[in-house]
Amino acid sequence: MAEDLTIIKGESKEEQYDSLVPQIQALLEGEDDLIANLGNIAAALKEQFAWLWVGFYLVKDEELVLGPFQGPVACTRIRKGKGVCGAAWAEAKTFIVDDVEEFPGHIACSSASRSEIVLPIIKDHIVIGVLDVDSQELAHFDHIDELYLNKIIAMINA
User: Fold this and answer.
1) Which strands, in side-by-side order, build the sheet including 53-60?
2) pLDDT band at residue 2, thresholds of 50, 70 and 90?
3) Can you say how many angstroms the Cα of residue 128 is from the centroid of all Cα atoms in its chain?
């Protein structure tokens, strides 16, 4: 298990992900604890990209419940279909929101959040949680983020 990260700056988004993905894989090797792994993933992503908020919500008793995260305090529980996270859970698909102010029913955990990407974590065809990432910049996320974040989600042994 690696316990250090090499953070690269000034490179393209793809080069940053290409550097980070194998490092995250090394962080997860030999560790079976879901919470520990989610914590390290959130920390690694936050360190590399300096996003406003990076974290996980896990499905528990028909709600998304806050899991490991990095960033300002967050909403603790989200109902299915509510906000971007609840929509990603309900529809089992990724949402890329260029301007959170324009997303119907957006839940504003932080007024500093301007754009967001939420990816479902699916196991045995069931959404068990979501990866939520917020940026202070409008239209910050794109298909490149979706591609690489899905690679990272695929590493999770839930």
Assistant:
1) 77-79, 63-70, 53-60, 126-135, 115-123, 95-97
2) low
3) 13
CATH code at 85? 3.30.450.40
- Determine, yes or no, domain membership for 1: no
- Residue 82 counted as domain residue: yes
Q: How many domains are there within the chain?
A: 1
pLDDT digits (tens, 9 = 90+) for 78-97: 999 999 999 999 999 999 99
In a domain, 6, yes or no: no
pTM for this prediction? 0.93
- Which single residue is written with the structure tokens 């690489």? 148
**3-state SS of 8-37?**
CCCCCHHHHHHHHHHHHHHHHCCCCCHHHH
Q: How many CB atoms lie within 10 A of CB 86?
A: 20
What pLDDT is stored for residue 5 in this prediction? 84
Q: How many CB atoms neighbour CB 21 within 10 A?
A: 16
40 within 8 A of 33, measured Cβ to Cβ:
no
C-alpha neighbours within 13 Å on the C-beta side of residue 116: 31
